[in-house]
Amino acid sequence: MALGLIRLLIVACALNCCLGARTSEPYRRTTSYSGQRVFSCQVTSASELANLTSDPRLDVWKAWRNEQGDHLVDVRTLSAQGESVVEEVAGRRCRVVIPDVEAWMKEQEASMFSAQHGRSERRVSRKLEWFDDYHPYEDIIAFYTALAASHPDLVTLTPSIGQSIELRPMPAVRITQATSPTAPKVLITCQIHAREWVSGSTCMFMAQQLVENFETNATVRELLSRAEVHILPFLNPDGYAYTWTGDRLWRKNRRVNERGNCLGVDLNRNFNIRWAEPGGGSSNNPCSEVYHGEAAESEPEIEHTVRYFKEHRPLVGGIDYHSYSQLILRPWGFTLDPPPHEAQLKAVGDGMEEVIRSVHGQTYLSQPGMDLYVTVGTSSDWYFSEDANEGNLGFRCAGYTIELRDTGRYGFILPPAQIIPTGQENYEGLVYFLQQFTDSPLPFP
What we know:
The protein is an alpha/beta fold.
C-alpha cells in the first residue's frame, strides 16, 4: 500500500512538472469540411474498390462485408468532383450516411471538447481519470515520462529513436523485468494514422495496466519476468499534432512532396512489403490518402521503426493499432494465398476475438487482412515478412493489425467515454496475445 502510494505521488509530480511547463494548445481545428459528404457504397468488383480507395478526390473511411456477404465501403467526398467519382463508380448502389461533414463534425466537437473536459487540470494521480479525455502529443510524452519515472525497475523510456519529418522525437517504451538478451519481445505500434486518436489512447491504457498489474497479477508478472513489451507510441507524431491544430481528419504524415501541391505520405503503405504493387490499395498520386511515397521506407518515421525492430530481436509478435471497424486482421493483406502458420495465426486471432468479447460484449471480427480490401506496404504484413525476419534468431514475428472501436456510428471521432472500455477489452486481448506467442513463437523460415 505504501509503495503504491509513493509511486502514485511520483507519477503525479512527474506529470505535473511536465504539464506545468508544456506549451501545447487546446484543440483548434482550422480546416473546413463544408460541402463534403460521406457515402456508403456497395462495390461489386475489385476494380471498383480500387478506384474508390486510391482516388485523390475521395477519402475511404471503412470497408467491410455485411451479413449478406456484400462488400461495402464508406467514402468521404473531398470535392464536387469526388461526388462525380462516386456516381460514376457505384452510382445507385450508394447512399448518403453523413449529408454534411462540417455540421456533423461541429456536433461531435461540441460534445467532445465542451469545457475542454478540464484537460489542463488533469492529474494522473487519480489513476483512470487521465483516460477521460484525449491528449495532445506533448502531454502523451509527459505520460510515458511519468510512467517510467515512477517504475524505473520495470519501464525504460527511450526519449527518441529518431525524428519525424518535422523533427519531433519518436519515443520508445520498454516494459519488462526479463534479463536475457534473447528474451522474446512483442512490439506494439500506435498512431500511424493521425486521425485515429483512440489508437494512442489505447496504447497508453495498456501500458499503464501492464505496469500496475505487474505487482498484483501473477500472469502479468510471469510474462514480464521472461518477455519484453516494446511500445512505439507515435509512428506519426507530426500528423497527430496537426489533427489538434489544423485538420482533425488528417491521415498521412506531413511530408512536403516534390510532385504536386499535396502534403503527406500514407505511412501504412510505405513499408518494404509489396511496396507500390499495382492494384494493391496504394497510389502514386501525392494527393491520394493512400499515397505510398517515392520509395519503400522513404519516410523517416518508417525508417526509424524498421531499424528499431531489427535492433531488438527476437521479436515474436507485433500489433499495429488502428481505428475503426472492430477487426483483428492477420496476414496477408495482398493475397488470398494462406500465409505460413495460418492455422496458428487464425487460432490466436479467434482467441483474441473471444477474450475481447468477454469484457464488454463487443465483437472484433478475426479475419485475414485481404478480406477487408487489398493493401500493400503495411506494418503488420512487414512484421511477418521475409525482410523483417531474416536474422530474427529463427523466429517469425506474428504481425496483426487491430481496428479498434467503433463500427461506424462515430468512426474516427470516438467519444472520450469509450476510451476506457476500448482500452480494457484490448488490454485483455493483448495479454492473451503475449501468452500465445511468447509461449509458442512461430519458427522462421
